[in-house]
Amino acid sequence: MTEQVAKRDIRQLSLEEIKDFFISIGEKPFRAKQVYEWLWKKSAKDFDQMTNLSLSTRELMKEAFEIKHIKVDTLQRSDDGTVKNAVKLHDDLIVESVLIPTDSRITACISSQVGCSLDCNFCATARLKRMRNLNPDEIYDQVVAIKDEAERFFERPLTNIVYMGMGEPLMNYQNVLKSIEKITSPEGLGMSPRRITLSTVGLPKMIKRMADEEVKFNLAVSLHSAIDETRSRMMPINDTSNLESLAESLLYWYKLTGRKVTFEYVVWKGINDDEAHARALAKYCLKIPSKVNLIEYNPIDEGEYEQADPGKIEMYERILKEKNVIVNIRRSRGKDIDAACGQLANKS
Questions:
Q1: Residue 96 is a catalytic residue
Q2: What CATH number does the domain located at 8-66 have?
Q3: Span(s) in the chain for CATH 1.10.150.530
Q4: How far, in Å, CA of 182 to CA of 202, rounded?
């Protein structure tokens, strides 16, 4: 009995490696470019879709390769138009991604890891152990699925992408950057990197690395407090990457990229909803070229984290504006289907 050779995941191969395969089977090298276009630009799910290849060539490819495409396992639609996908991966693990529609844009919120290891105690995803990083193609496929849903449900194109779903993108650095490379490439989706935002809890070493590599996308940081003691209580990562080291890395980012950072900031009742915290945030923003998104909290249980009173949000807004800090209040979308910020936890 002959041992079956494991098939290779073709989307892990470069164009040159696919070209080498075609040469090895006596085919013309230009076939590689055709296949590459099917894999990325046309998001083919199987080799039979590649109709400009002969049947015999397709059969040879099936013997050597597989396409580990994601599958939207469950789709939920919110009363406000938000769409949440429970996405099944090739190994049956699940991640979630979200389509967020507004009058002016349609945004894809996508995941970079199955679970998360950072233990932010206000986030539902943090309660899942981190099982693995997503591959570039698995991240890319989430975007393609939402792009198709934008056209199907809203007859409008996808305009923006945020890496704000499950996981910490900078702890899956190489795969995340490869996915962005494919999303922005003319051979992929051809989207502008200026329409992509990577959101991180703030890992100074990796932020500096991104700046050194001259990335073209935008950066957002989940801040939630500009007082170390409070931030460490909510986000254990602050014990090793405190506000001072974060500020240093963000100034480095701005120096090399010329792009402001966006601080994502939730105000919670009895935790950071006083003037001392608001003024600390304003002071922190004056050190770093930045703007602030004040985000409505979405409860994940009956625990200590509750949305602050509207008056407290207005107090933050007033204090930030007094210091000429750009501030926006972001209302939550998709709460009724657990699709809002901090709620992604694979309940499906």
A1: yes
A2: 1.10.150.530
A3: 8-66
A4: 24
Q: Is 155 a catalytic residue?
A: no
| Tens-digit pLDDT profile for residues 204-231 | 999 999 999 999 999 999 999 999 999 9
- What are 97-132's pLDDT values in tens digits? 999 999 999 999 999 999 776 667 667 666 666 679
Active-site entry in 16, 63, 96, 229: 96
The CATH T-level fold of domain 71-337 is TIM Barrel (3.20.20)
Rounded Cα–Cα distance for residues 108 and 163 (Å): 8
What is 236-292 written as a DSSP string?
GGGGTS-HHHHHHHHHHHHHHH--PEEEEEE-BTTTS-SHHHHHHHHHHHHHS-EEE
Residue 296 above 90 pLDDT? no
| Stretch(es) of the chain classified as CATH 3.20.20.70 | 71-337
Extract the tokens encoding 174: 């190489």
Average pLDDT, the chain: 90
pLDDT at residue 151 greater than cutoff 50: yes
| pTM of the model as a whole | 0.90
Residue 29: count of CB within 10 angstroms of its CB: 13
Residues in the chain: 348
